[in-house]
Amino acid sequence: MMNSHELFGAEMLKAFDAATAPVNEAGILPPILYTSSEFYRFERDTIFTKEWLCVGRTSQIPDPGDWYQFTLLDEPLLVVRDRDGQVRVLSAVCQHRGMVVAEGSGNCNKFLCPYHHWSYALDGRLLGMPEMDQAVGFDKTQYGLPSLPTEIWNGFIFCRFTKQGDALAPTLEQLTELLSHFDLDNCYTKIGDTYEDLPWNWKVMLENFNDGYHANRLHAGIGDHVPSENARFLEWSDDQNHVSRLNYFTHIDGGFNATRKTLLPVFEKLSDDERHRAMFCLLPPTLGLAVTPDTITYFIVNPKAAEAIDIHIGYCMDPRAPQEPLFDILFRDMEAGVNDFNVQDIHADTMVQKGLRSRFGPNGRYSWQEETLQQFNRWLVKRYRADWPATHTG
Predict the structure, then answer these.
(1) Fewest Cβ atoms closer than 10 Å to its Cβ: which of 170, 202, 243, 276?
(2) Residue 368 DSSP SS3
(3) CB-based contacts of 141: which residues, under 8 Å, 6+ apart?
């Protein structure tokens, strides 16, 4: 077992240099970074506490008073639209004794803790607290539900646990332009499945999601119309908060279903080039977008431990989609096609994590078709180095 000095020592910094070299010279990150509970705790502090994390779509809370509870990194949160229509992310933890004030989803005028009936406004302010009049020096303004910084991008809700840091949107300008013809702010959204307790590290999920090398290899038969050789990679800079690739179909209007064609209305504003390609976009550390001409499937990744994650899946479609006479059938077939890919990816990710735990764990090199993995390494290593423990650099 690698000790703390080895895990955070100078040799690991050299490994970071190797993993961020040009793709045809680069090697993979050391397997210990995918299996170590100590390193996962470091990532929680240096990445998940500081970065923008996706918690859903604004369409899940369309009206004032709408809310849902979302647990992120073991933190119970309330995603709510307040009386003024503003989207907020609040802690769901009652500031009296720690009870979770609400579960599931709904619409309300205030949150009432079921334990002792402390009540909170939709913006988190403490409104009422029975029989607290004798508490010496009690100031209810100090006991509201903590509120997290929140930002909306293309209809996705992001929050973070620290108040310091840059806004999200300026770091996504390239991706915003790439997605502009999909009009995600106004699309129709449908929530899909949640996969719980998947036995892999969060980075394994993100790497597989944006690995062009396996497209028509692992997915031979169902993915032949998006061949790996048709992958195209974007220029990437260290100030970007997305890692994206294009993958061209062998025909126009390709889809990830049994027909290999779109089943639902193609987004109205797409160019001919956009109708000939898929896009796979990571917004690390928690969101992946699989973009086709009729559907954007999104994956919200929620780490739970060094080797465990949950994944929440949803679908964004052109607003005309639910008006299709056979929408329910077509959506079911589209979702089944996505799940065919998911089944193969779930098995592959499970086996990769098992291999990373092996004493013969890999020390591999990248294909040119994995350039997005080298870009993801650059995103990671920039953040690792910023908080690297000073006592372990020698």
Answers:
(1) 170
(2) helix
(3) 125, 126
